[in-house]
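Database export, one record per block. Field names are fixed; values are copied verbatim from the stored entry.
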Amino acid sequence: MADVGELLMSVLSTIRVPKPGDRVHKDECALSFSSPESEGGLYVCMNSFLGLGSQYVDRHHARSGQRAYLHITRTRKAKEDDGNSGSGHPPKKKPTRLAIGIEGGFDVEQEQYEEDVKVVILPDRQEVTSEDLATMPDVVRERVSLSMAGIMAADSVSHTLQVQQWDGEVRQESKHAADLKQLDNGVKIPPSGWRCEVCDLQENIWMNLTDGKVLCGRRYFDGSGGNNHALLHYQETGYPLAVKLGTITPDGADVYSYDEDDMVLDSKLPEHLAHFGIDMMTMEKTERTMTELEIAVNQRVGEWEVIQESGTTLRPLFGPGLTGMKNLGNSCYLNSVMQVLFTIPDFQSKYVSNIDKIIDEAPSDPTQDFKTQVAKLGYGLLSGDYSKPAPDPGEENGAAEPRGDQIGIAPQMFKALVGRGHPEFSTNRQQDAQEFLLHFINMVERNCRSGSNPSEAFRFLVEERIVCQQSQKAKYTQRVDYIVQLPVPMDQATNTEELQEAERRREEGDSSAPTVRAQIPFTACMAALSEPEILTDFWSSAVQAKTTATKTTRFASFPDHLVIQIKKFTFGLDWVPKKLDVSIDVPDTLDLSGLRATGQQPGEELLPEVAPPPLMTPDVEVKGILGSHGNEEDDSLYSPLLSPVLDDSTVSQLCEMGFPLEACRKAVYYTGNTGIDAAMNWIMSHMDDPDFSAPLVLPGCSSGPGTTPTESLSEEHLATIVSMGFSRDQATKALRATSNVLDRAVDWIFSHLDDLESMDVSEGGRSAAESEGGRDPPPGPRVRDGPGKYELFAFISHMGTSTMCGHYVAHIKKDQQWVIFNDQKVCASEKPPKDLGYLYFYRRVAE
């Protein structure tokens, strides 16, 4: 390999050394779930620091032109001894691997793996080992060695993301930081090699920021940690702040305030460290931060094995479509939902069947591309490449239960991408699976404006029919929905006597009282869904007064796949979230044909579209608002409108409920100031209107107070929205509806996609309905329709007291066999608990 030096010299200019802020993907392929432990290892581009599996590195080379890759391979090796923590030093902290996400804690890779690292030059995959580098010219050897060392020392993106996602408390600035007393005692702290000055411990070492004393930290609950010498020093001296040595980097460090008994921020930390000779800019992290330690404890303790049909020997399953997903820390809600979605043909054909095309068209950083990461996840679940038994870790707890764990896939990139910017899904807290399903569907809608849209499989139209009981005239509205929310009528329980007896015994303090679950018939839930709702204080435009009305909800279309949510989660009298403990006999087949909407009935009259009379002040009358042909000199062309007076207290009450101000003003106006109940009914009936948040425009006016005329719209805002693929007309509508605020306009436009897609834009930039006088109503949102007969193919169950805690598991019917997907465990289900589900998934039965 005489020409290796020349090869390296030819690519030397493309080899970079990672800098702070560079994203180094050294644990996972950007396009697959290959890792250094996989067959073929992982290739890390030495320019972009993207990780590529063996099957994708040639494709990346062909597209990017990059030739130098760091090839990392790890092979598991057996543990030689298991009990060397007996004598000498205090027990080492059990999770000691810096990379977070290994089941059971942080394991040092050197103790578990044989690691091989070498540079590979494409396209011929010529290898350069460390021994080869030693014979190279200095300039080559130093550059390549620095890049290799930097890549291996950098925190991987998956590690960094998990630390960022951890829901630790936000640290506050310490009250002692601004004027901390520091002794001029000549103490200088070396950059490494720290030991406790009392017991010589070398781990969990803290330096007091007042006198520079280097002492060990507190002892952890499991016996590891330190010997409390730093705490004892504070109790003797009162010096409040200490920094954890080994966590200092240019970005900060762990600082603890003994006086405030919490982790804190120290805005003057560089100055305080420099007092003892420590330069923050040159320090590197060698110890785990307290957040990383919290994650380690959580991952040791938080292995949920509930609701897995315990007590039954489950047969592990492997193969295509039977791939487990690792729990990344309360990510079972995501795992369950995505397992179900990728059994649906629409998602398979959109993402998995086209994966080669998607990867070929992926941007330079595919880790940030929605379509690429969804396709990667779908292929990982369906291919069977990762559906293999996990290697036996050889731990002492392995014999108690049959192992069904798989190698599986860890959806770290996917979770980070779909949760980015979201206040809940970006964290490691437990979430509601139904809310995540809707969040993901919304992301699919945003990213499928052109081409097929798999979320159409769930989309259906709901028709609401409101009948004025006094005039018997009706009003019809339609809205789009994706999930049927099924109420749980607790008063319809079939075992009321057992429930009352169990409650009586509990109140008497009988600890042996059995737990009795309410048995609710599915037919009772459907009846509660379909029965008419009584609306009191309904303002009827037919009688121009408040009266009683009935509202009936029906299906205007039936989707290909129907999702039913059992409304188990509610609030107690103290507003604390709780879950109804119920059993519902959910059927395997469902016929909803009787709930199809019929539209306006023969001979039925509709309520007139007339606004209620606005209230006027008796002594204030305005000339009106200038019409399209008016001018300031000609009062005769003013529209003879009176200025409405809105009930400010009602508007305020509605705003306090979280509704937009303009929507609240319209609700009060259109219900004639008849009170909070009528205004609330108006809001609930018009929440899906495209102009729900738009300013109030009075009848006969060209614009209302607060509207934004087209002339005053920001051209920069218009250009920004148009650059996202929307027409100028659509951008104008969004900015008008949000008072020319760009961020709100972008949110508005994505939440009104169906309405905007119906705006057929013509050459002149105006909608066809507008330019042609609106001869035809715009088409509604695209929905599929067919018979209302369905069969159950999946359900997601929840274990716990509320959506904020607990565990999710999915059961999916595969080839007439129910299969349980419990994170990494995939097994044949013996007793699928269909009566305890939370989300049920039905597919249409072909007739």
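Remark 1: The chain has a mean pLDDT of 79.
Remark 2: Residues 138-153 form the longest helix (16 residues).
End of record.
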